[in-house]
Design goal:
The protein is of the alpha+beta class and 80 residues long. The longest helix is centred in the N-terminal third of the chain and has 16 residues. Helix 1 packs antiparallel against helix 2. The protein has one domain. 36% of the residues lie in helices and 20% in strands. A hairpin with a 7-residue loop joins strand 1 and strand 2.
Length: 80
């Protein structure tokens, strides 16, 4: 995958934007088309040595939550 503007961001900003976009998608404020941006953020984090993933916790629309997992690995240009 080609580099994106997200590759210039530090990991704190990547995680913050990742969290904000996912929460807004799952609350209905953004469409699922923004999942492409989520994918770009995951790749940018991966190249910096972190893996990002998420899971939507079931509940009512007002009480639903997005759980985000962050793990580390050696920086790489492509997944193993």
């Amino acid at each position: 995958m080609q580099q994106s503007i997200y590759d210039t961001m530090n990991i704190k900003n990547i995680v913050g934007l990742y969290t904000m976009i996912l929460n807004q998608i799952h609350s209905g404020k953004l469409t699922s088309a923004m999942l492409y941006e989520v994918n770009l953020l995951e790749w940018a984090a991966y190249r910096k040595g972190f893996s990002l993933s998420y899971k939507k916790k079931k509940g009512s629309l007002l009480n639903s939550r997005v759980l985000i997992s962050i793990s580390t690995h050696p920086p790489s240009l492509s997944p193993q």
